[in-house]
Design brief:
Strand content of chain A: 15-25%
Shape of chain A: globular
Radius of gyration of chain A: 23 Å
Shape of chain B: globular
Largest interface: A-B, 49 and 60 residues
CATH topology of chain B: TIM Barrel
Distance between the termini of chain A: 72 Å
CATH architecture of the domain at 88-370 in chain A: Alpha-Beta Barrel
Number of helices of chain A: 15
Largest sheet of chain A: 8 strands, mixed
CATH superfamily of the domain at 88-370 in chain A: Metal-dependent hydrolases
Number of strands of chain A: 16
CATH superfamily of chain B: Metal-dependent hydrolases
Structural class of chain A: alpha/beta
Oligomer: heterodimer
Largest sheet of chain B: 8 strands, mixed
Structural class of chain B: alpha/beta
Number of helices of chain B: 13
Helix content of chain A: 25-40%
CATH topology of the domain at 88-370 in chain A: TIM Barrel
CATH class of chain B: Alpha Beta
CATH class of the domain at 88-370 in chain A: Alpha Beta
Strand content of chain B: 15-25%
Order of helices and strands of chain B: HHEEEEEEHEEEHHHEHEHEHEHHHEEEH
């Protein structure tokens, strides 16, 4: 499609706004850090390197390997017997947009409405939330803060879990557009699947029309459109292939319908939820469409996931589908490694499960520099006491953009306060 | 504050329950060779228990047919009774554990099934003391939304048993997670939600037949945010925590009067129990008080015939609950959820109140804001009885991992715990919470043969329950899954083909 003057203006504006977010990224100060003698997970399907070094400097990974020269001024972390991975990426999280789920004033996860493609989760993100520190203590260094309600739900933000300001923490303010065709969304919108798909097609149809007739629209000479201008604009990056369209679909036939829509619109798709994706694994693999799943969701919780099963992740992974594992949670950052571990328990390859919370989300969402320990990568690194997916393992060090972050949380402070009971002098409680 | 136990004047009349389920001997206790279920009284007869006995059904749990002998050998046996045999053996016979110990065990008798469990781990079956499986089943439908009767804040006359859908697909998945017994409770929308039911997991067509033989009656109560949110939303009392406590005290005051009326009537009959039917017109003063199912339940709580399972999160709410229990002279068996138990662990341990909680859930509401993953460990260190629960059909499939996580958190905080302590969070302690600790929860001779065989240490993420036995019968075999238990899942590809193509 030929970009008109309006499109060009919008593009420039979008780029300027992206620059505004990332321009003030935290300076990576301090000396280089060398994590030595560790078992290091490296990209590209290679086996982990034993007794290896990871060198961080200037906010980046400088070197990874067994023969890395450690600069004299480097701070050295002895990690013999430890495991080093890229910081985990939670590909569907509500960290930073909710404090207490049942208190509406503290909850910015949902909007009231079914068609809000222009909603930006970044506008509700709070980098000082207590949940940021808790997720980080679980080895999560970046999250995709995704919208969770509406046929067109809005745009996710991609953030690093560090920094006190939005400018310091937000990496991509508008990473992807989200659509939902699951049972709850059908009920909350048109009432039937047919009605919901009609809404979706009309929305994209209007967005196409708007892009082709912007001058007429500006001159008030175009046919009337149902969506407001902000919504029409918000869908352009998807139609231009600059943003993926993430569709939450569980039933196999709903996933197939989403793939058909993707063909019609020629957009880049990611399927979320995907409880029955194993039934269409070959089709997803052929198209290289990534899925974002909770591998523990094995119950026929709804009629749109009666075929849910325990080894969904394993089957998809073996079929060659890019599998991304997420928490779909705000408070339970620990679920990320536990979900990945359960995928292994239920048949997924261990290294593939590690990739499902590191490389795979980075690849699926186009997060260059993330999810991989290789020279030039963003310095998001976690040192674990052992296998990252095992219950007994503890997170020992977390680096975000090359800087070591504190592991103090509200919970560690509560523990400190109550490790010995503060019993008043009169013994009463 | 100290909790002085006021004497309950009503108990001074000499009537006392012999067992929470009335005069019937609990068949299961006999079969397992264990003592009668826990009870605060030892002699006499309760008028309420007698009334209850009249309501029994012809489909009560029958004792399962005696299982054939099964000998599991060459495994690591984790007994949850402070013993670990590595390698060891476990012999099940006639539904009970016949022998357990180190080495290869006795020569197998003729016809015995011998399981070579080299490299495997054997534990008691997991007991989940707080589940809504069957009352909030999968799939979530209006047709089966049967967990909360939100029409009155005190619905003590309800029984979860009468909502329980035995075709819930979550039942079999729980068993696949090594679970053999569930405490199924009504939801927490009401201050008194109703009686729970303890179910022993094997496929049946009705809840009554799944009742754990000899398990005491349990009552679900709730404090804090849920009742006041539910009824506040309806613009009726309670809308506050003080409203919660008032409504509860008023209910127990009525139960005191109800007890008094029945005791006086029983006394007038000159008999220890109302032997005649309630509508008999025998003597001049023989018309009994009207039965009230709710007050009957609360009166049985006052008499120690029903175990109180109380949903409370905050330390201050638990202390207020203990105040009410103290005022009316009943015991709290366990606080469920109890995220702030670590703040008052000395009080709860002293009062012998258990907790049933998660490993690390927190933050979903205000009263859950101070949860810490060290809760179980700190509570255990203080001498308290801590149990893990799921409250979720997903979390209930990986309670063993929750124990592993809570153990790791405790150890990192410097709490000295061994694997057996963590295993007891899954078995022995929830058995006590449900009053069935004399029958299950440890691998000891004479206990029911509820057993899980794991691929790995059950505290590991990677451990899979491979074989699960209930009363010595093999109810789950991962290598040979067979047709689904639930009729609902017949013809569904995920289940009929499940895990067979690995």
């Amino acid at each position: 499609m030929r970009a008109g003057g309006g499109t060009r203006r919008a593009l420039v504006a979008a780029m300027a706004s992206a620059l505004a977010w990332t321009g003030a990224a935290r300076a990576a100060d301090g000396p280089p850090v060398a994590i030595v003698h560790a078992r290091v997970y490296v990209p590209g399907g290679r086996a982990p390197l034993d007794y290896a070094t990871v060198l961080l400097a200037g906010g980046k990974v400088q070197a990874v390997g067994r023969d890395v020269t450690v600069p004299l001024q480097a701070v050295t972390i002895e990690a013999k017997g430890k495991v080093v991975t890229p910081g985990l990426i939670d590909a569907d999280s509500s960290v930073g947009v909710v404090d207490v789920s049942l208190e509406p004033e503290s909850d910015d996860t949902d909007v009231h409405g079914v068609m809000s493609p222009a909603l930006r989760m970044v506008d509700g993100y709070n980098p000082r939330s207590a949940l940021v520190l808790l997720a980080r203590r679980s080895g999560v260094t970046s999250v995709i803060v995704a919208p969770h309600s509406g046929v067109l739900a809005g745009q996710a933000a991609f953030v690093d879990l560090a920094g006190d300001t939005l400018a310091e923490s937000v990496v991509r303010p508008t990473l992807a557009e989200y659509a939902r065709v699951d049972e709850d969304t059908v009920q909350a919108s048109a009432g039937t699947r047919g009605g919901l798909w009609l809404m979706l097609r009309e929305a994209f149809g209007e967005a196409r029309f708007y892009a082709a007739h912007r001058a007429a629209y500006d001159a008030n000479a175009a046919r009337p459109l149902g969506l407001p201008r902000a919504s029409l604009e918000a869908l352009q990056p998807v139609l231009r292939g600059e943003q993926p369209l993430v569709v939450t679909a569980h039933r196999a036939s709903d996933i197939e319908a989403a793939l058909r829509l993707g063909d019609e619109l020629k957009v880049r798709l990611i399927i979320e939820g995907a409880s029955e994706a194993w039934l269409v694994a070959d089709e997803l693999a052929r198209r290289k469409v990534a899925v974002v799943i909770d591998p523990m969701a094995n119950l026929p919780e709804r009629f749109d996931r009666l075929h849910a099963r325990s080894d969904n992740a394993a089957i998809l992974s073996r079929a060659g589908v890019p599998v991304v594992i997420a928490t779909f949670s705000a408070h339970q950052g620990r679920l990320l490694w536990q979900h990945a571990g359960n995928a292994v328990r239920l048949g997924m390859d261990h290294d593939a499960a590690i990739r499902a919370v590191t490389e795979a989300p980075a690849d699926a969402f186009g997060l260059r520099g993330y999810g991989r320990l290789e020279p030039g990568a963003v310095g998001n690194v976690v040192v674990w006491s052992g296998d990252p997916l095992e219950t007994s393992t503890r997170v020992e060090h977390v680096f975000v953009r090359g800087r070591e972050e504190t592991l103090v949380t509200r919970q560690t402070l509560l523990l400190e306060r109550y490790r010995t009971l503060p019993i008043p002098r009169d013994g009463s409680r | 504050m100290t909790f002085r136990r006021t004497a309950l004047a009503l108990l001074g009349v000499g009537l006392c329950a012999c067992s929470p389920r009335g005069a019937r001997a609990p068949a299961g206790a006999e079969a397992a060779g264990g003592p009668a279920p826990a009870s605060t009284c030892s002699a006499g007869q309760s008028p309420f228990a007698e009334a209850e006995a009249r309501s029994r059904m012809p489909v009560d749990q029958a004792e399962a047919p005696r299982s054939t002998a099964v000998l599991i050998r060459h495994a690591t046996i984790m007994t949850a009774a402070h013993r670990r045999y590595e390698p060891g053996f476990l012999l099940m016979k006639g539904g009970a554990i016949a022998a357990v110990g180190a080495g290869d065990g006795p020569a197998p008798e003729a016809g015995a099934v011998v399981v070579d469990a080299q490299g495997k781990f054997v534990t008691p079956g997991i007991i989940d003391p707080h589940s809504h499986i069957g009352v909030y089943p999968s799939p979530q439908t209006a047709g089966h939304d049967d967990g909360n009767e939100l029409t009155d804040p005190v619905t003590a006359g309800l029984r979860a048993e009468h909502s329980f859908w035995p075709q819930d697909p979550a039942i079999e998945r729980a068993v696949a997670g090594g679970v053999t017994t569930l405490g199924v409770l009504p939801g927490s929308g009401n201050l008194v939600g109703g009686r729970g039911v303890v179910v022993h997991l094997s496929p049946r067509q009705g809840a009554r037949a799944m009742r754990f033989p000899g398990a005491p009656e349990i009552l679900k109560m709730a404090c804090g945010e849920n009742p006041k949110r539910v009824y506040g939303g309806m613009k009726r009392s309670p809308t506050t925590r003080m409203g919660n406590v008032r409504a509860l005290r008023e209910a127990f005051i009525k139960a005191q009067k109800y007890t008094r009326d029945w005791v006086e009537w029983t006394d007038r009959q000159g008999k220890p129990a109302p032997a005649k039917k309630p509508d008999d017109k025998g003597g001049p003063d023989s018309k009994p008080p009207d039965r009230d199912l709710g007050l009957e339940t609360l009166a049985q709580v006052l008499r120690g015939e029903i175990l109180v399972e109380w949903h409370c999160y905050q330390a201050d709410d638990m202390l207020a609950a203990l105040q009410v229990a103290d005022e009316f002279g009943f015991k709290v068996r366990a606080f469920h959820h109890a995220l702030e138990a670590y703040k008052i662990r000395d009080v709860l341990a002293r009062e012998n109140v258990a907790i049933a909680t998660w490993d690390d859930w927190w933050g979903f509401k205000m009263e859950a804001y101070d949860g810490v993953p060290e809760n179980l460990a700190l509570f255990t260190e203080a001498g308290g009885r801590a149990a893990l629960h799921s409250d979720s059909p997903i979390a209930g499939q990986v309670l063993n991992q929750a124990a592993g996580k809570a153990l790791a958190a405790g150890r990192a905080a410097g709490v000295k715990l061994d694997d057996d302590d963590a295993l007891r969070w899954l078995t022995a302690n929830p058995a006590w919470v449900l009053g069935i600790d004399d029958q299950v929860g440890t691998l000891e001779t004479g206990k029911r043969a509820d057993v899980a065989v794991w691929s790995d240490n059950p505290l590991s993420t990677y451990a899979r329950a491979e074989l699960v036995y209930v009363d010595g019968h093999l109810v789950f075999d991962r290598a040979h899954p067979g047709a689904p238990w639930s009729d609902f899942e017949l013809g569904v590809r995920g289940m009929t083909a499940r895990e067979t193509d690995r």
